[in-house]
Amino acid sequence: MxxxxxxxxxxxxxxxxxxxxxxxxxxxxxxxxxxTGLSGPNGSGKTTFLKLLAFAIAPSQGEIRFNxxxxxxxxxxxxxxxxxxxxxxxxxxxxxxxxxxxxxxIRKDTKKLKQRAERALAAVGLDFDGFHNRAxxxxxxxxxxxxxxxxRLILEPQALLLDEPVASVDAESARLILKASLAARDKWGxxxxxxxxxxxxxxxxxDTRLSMEKGRIFSTHEEIILPPPYxxxxxxxxxxxxxxxxxxxxxxxxxxxxxxxxxPADKINIAREVExxxxxxxxxxxxxxxxxxxPKTGRIEVDLNADAFGLTLLLSKEQAGALNLQPGKxxxxxxRTRDVFWR
Length: 343
Fold this sequence. Notes:
CATH 2.40.50.100; five-stranded antiparallel β-sheet; 2 domains; 9 helices; six-stranded mixed β-sheet; alpha+beta; Rossmann fold
């Protein structure tokens, strides 16, 4: 249901807090009708990025185009088309029904409020008769999160931005939030941008998976971030860059030409044992933490913990089988220093 015209176009976008650059995106498009999943460490700029896309704040530099037009906070053209649900959404100290229809009343769109509220609550798995008269304080954490989502779904926004929607909810609420998010795209072409640390949940709902590091966006399955801090070590007259790991291990990096080190995913190999020959290769012990079938491609998504960083690789079933990969197994990550690049 995606459109050839991007819903969002970002150009030379930068945002600063207290002189520190927290978002730094040169060019980036988000297709209309797509679902984009965004992950990354705390402090990487994800929440600020969502606020910029919601036009809740103005960027320090650059522009955001929405439907091909440059837009600004409080623009009437985007106010009714974009909605953001924060990690801890605020509920009015009123009934569930009052919370769900509040946005419609603000817009003076009061036709068939009960029927529309009933549909919105049903979309998130809440029975209208059992919940519409409940007060905000009578809801569990998962129920409150679903009511907050229903209050946004009832508006049928063109863009729905979700910040950690399943961070503090039970498994059933997470499943229902996923179902409602997918239905919003399927029913009216809603574009979703979702931030989450729950990678399995995020993979289940996203068309595109991205990572954020130091305010920059990277393709999760194509480029693996080797996150800072980086150090220099001197051998004789030569100074080399490294990413230090525990137990005296390190990742050897090329000369620093950017802020973040990355390695293309297709340049990484997984080995059962450490090879004795060096050949300019990094060899990093990793632990398999999760494996899941990716329905869209039929490949196996493998999460690995490499001490200083985590990564996700997509492997064929044959590759995963040949390596006897299972959660809890230890393997060796192998890649050449010369294949690492900086951005």
